[in-house]
Amino acid sequence: MTLREPVITVENLTKRFGDFIATNAITFDVYKGEIFGFLGANGAGKTTAMRMLCGLSVPSSGRATVAGFDIYRQTEQIKRHIGYMSQKFSLYEDLTVAENIRFFGGIYGLSNHQLQSKSKALIERLGLQAERGKLVGELPLGWKQKLAFSVSILHEPRIVFLDEPTGGVDPVTRRQFWALIHEAAASGITVFVTTHYMDEAEYCNRVSIMVDGRINALGTPSELKQQFGEPSMDGVFYQLARGAKRGD
Question: Which residue range or ranges hold the ABC transporter domain (predicted)?
Answer without folding.
Answer: 8-237
